[in-house]
Specification:
165 residues, six-stranded antiparallel sheet, single chain, four-stranded antiparallel sheet, 10 strands
Length: 165
C-alpha cells in the first residue's frame, strides 16, 4: 500500500455506435486492465449505444503505464465476441493533480489533450477543476473494429498512508 500513489476512479459512461456482433444488436460490456488489475462493467442487453455509468477503480502505483480498455459482446453459448479496444495515458491527468488549483472557480479548464495518431482520443479531451477536484472526460475511438467509441470520466482518490503524488 505504501507504493501506491492513489486510486483512479474511471466511470464508464456510455458507448456510441458500437459494432453489431449478434443478429440484430450486441450485449456489450467493457473490461479495463492495468498490469494485473482487471475490472469489468455491467452488461447492457441488446444495445449498440449503451449507457453504463459504472464506476471502476484502479490502484495506481506508476502513472506512466497505459490503461487498456476492451469492449466485448456477451454470448451465452459461445465465447464472447470482441468489439474493439483502446488505451489511454494518465500522465497529464496525474501532472494536473500535483498542482494546487484550490482558488480556481469550478469548471475551469486546466489543459486540453488533442487527438493524434499515438492516442485513441476521438475528440479533444479536457482536464478541468470541478468542485474541488480534477476531472477528465474523454471519448475513445475503438481500434480493431469497424466502428464505436466509449466515453469515460476520470477522478482521483487519495489513499491515507500511501506515498501519494
Amino acid at each position: 500500500m505504501e507504493n501506491l500513489l492513489g486510486l483512479l476512479r474511471i466511470t464508464v459512461l456510455r458507448g456510441v455506435k458500437l459494432a453489431k456482433r449478434d443478429t440484430n444488436s450486441s450485449d456489450p460490456y467493457v473490461v479495463i486492465k492495468l498490469g494485473k488489475q482487471k475490472l469489468k462493467s455491467s452488461v447492457v442487453k441488446k444495445n449498440l449505444n449503451p449507457e453504463w455509468n459504472d464506476e471502476l477503480t484502479l490502484a495506481i502505483d506508476d502513472p506512466r503505464h497505459p490503461i487498456k480498455l476492451e469492449v466485448y459482446d456477451q454470448d451465452v453459448f459461445s465465447r464472447d465476441d470482441k468489439m474493439g479496444d483502446a488505451e489511454f495515458e494518465i500522465d497529464q491527468f496525474v501532472e494536473a493533480l500535483r498542482c494546487n488549483f484550490d482558488s480556481l472557480p469550478s469548471g475551469t479548464v486546466i489543459t486540453k489533450l488533442k487527438p493524434k495518431r499515438e492516442n485513441c482520443l476521438a475528440e479533444e479531451s479536457s482536464i478541468y477543476w470541478d468542485n474541488g477536484q480534477i476531472v477528465q472526460r474523454m471519448f475513445l475511438r475503438l481500434r480493431n473494429v469497424e466502428c464505436g467509441e466509449i466515453e469515460l470520466q476520470l477522478k482521483w482518490t487519495k489513499i491515507p498512508g500511501s506515498r501519494g503524488l
